[in-house]
Amino acid sequence: MPTKAGQDGNTSAAAARKRAERTLSIVVPCFNEADNLPAVHARLCETAQMLRETRGLKIEVVYIDDGSRDSTYAVASALPAIGLDVQTVSLSRNFGKEAALMAGLHHARYGAILFMDGDGQHPPALIERLVGHWIDDGYDVVYTAKAHRDQEPLLRRAGVKTFYALMNFRSRHKIPEDAGDFRLLSPRAANALRQLPERNRFFKGLASWIGFRQLRVDYEPAERAHGRTSWNLGSLIGLSIEGLTSFSVAPLRVASLLGVLLATGALIFGMAILYETLIYGKSVPGYPSVVVGLMVLGGVQLIMIGVLGEYIGKILSEQKARPVYFVAEHQTRSEAREEASEDRQPGAAA
Ligand code: UDP
Ligand code: MG
User: Ligand 2: distance of its center to the CA of 154 in Å?
Assistant: First the structure.
């Protein structure tokens, strides 16, 4: 909420809403980004000051330290609140980027929300353009997408293509290909995202699923200044399975389709054997066909049990209803006073 709300006793709800429309929380998930944060923060301060002058936009930045092993939290807590308010939240351990984004969504106090990485790969220079599409053009979700994937290995590009093809297979709502986590949500879109109850999150999909007016902006991600990406093949496959099972029952349909195909194949094969035996009196051809048939059936059944397991695992984890993250430390510094108010919330979930 805007801090000035208490000063004016008879502020109408409409005026409050209007003001909320002109505030922006920038959520930055950070995992071992101590070396990158000062540079990112300096550029955010510049952008915030510029946006305040040109558009009267009040901005806060929310750094979510996702259980970093380096000094990310100490560095973030010491960043100056120049031209914007600063919130630093430290999670009790590393919960993963999706959980960090959710923590940011819960802690953001202002109307609109912008998500960006803490490694400097998302250019702050683009923020002004995203804000323009929101305020001037009335878009609710302005998402960025990599302009091209030319530098990426062929195998990875093929993987991404297959993932989106499966994901969007016959689904009513298509999730845009290549969309990244660098995106701006208007106040009503941010509220919609907060209302989604699921704990297994696939943020890109959810932000698209809520609807409203969406706009794609192409950009060229910068190189990482320090550190290494925390994604590897395993975690990317994990995120893909998470996304697929969250948004699509296509893998289950594939099971039924394969079943029908195999049964049809078996029927035709059986008829052919019968025909040969009855008309030409040929004897039954040995066991290879039987063994191959058995292996195909066994393999397909095992794969499909695995697919079912993914969905059942998801039901189990939703049903346990555990909090997605815990906050260990939380600090808010507002721009005007530069005083730190600190509160410790051991074990408090959002
Ligand atoms: N990140 C996080 N928790 C994690 C892994 C990553 O908060 O467990 C943050 C990370 O600090 C960065 C953003 O998510 O700000 C994107 O991570 P990364 O740069 O490793 O991914 P890539 O840019 O390669 O997709
Ligand atoms: Mg990165």
Answer: 20
Lowest-confidence segment of 139-148, 214-223, 228-237 by average pLDDT:
228-237
Ligand nearest to the CA of 69: 1
Q: Which atom of ligand 1 is closest in space to residue 96's alpha carbon?
A: 8
In the 8-state DSSP scheme, what is residue 278?
I
Distance separating alpha carbons of residues 170 and 165, to the nearest angstrom: 9
Considering only the C-alpha atoms of the chain, give the largest distance between any 2 of them, rounded to a whole number of Å: 98
Asked if residue 275 has pLDDT above 90, the reply is: no
Tens digits of per-residue pLDDT, 229-260? Answer: 777 778 778 878 877 787 777 777 787 788 88
Are the C-beta atoms of 181 and 97 separated by less than 8 Å?
yes
Angstrom distances, CA of residue 1 to CA of 5, 70, 201, 206, 266 = 8, 32, 25, 24, 65
Q: Is 29 in the pocket of ligand 1 (CB under 6 A)?
A: yes
Q: Are strands 214-219 and 141-146 parallel, antiparallel or unpaired?
A: parallel
Q: With both helix axes pointing from N to C terminus, report the angle between 187-195 and 97-107 in degrees, rounded to the nearest 10.
A: 120
**CB neighbour list of residue 319: distance below 8 Å, 6 or more residues apart:** none
The response to whether residue 65 sits with its C-beta less than 6 Å from ligand 1 reads: no
Dig out the tokens for 269 from the structure. 């094969």
CB neighbour burial string for 314-341, b if at least 16 within 10 angstroms, e if fewer: beeeeeeeeebbbbbbbbbbbbeeeeee
Question: What's CA 118's distance to the chain center, in Å?
Answer: 15
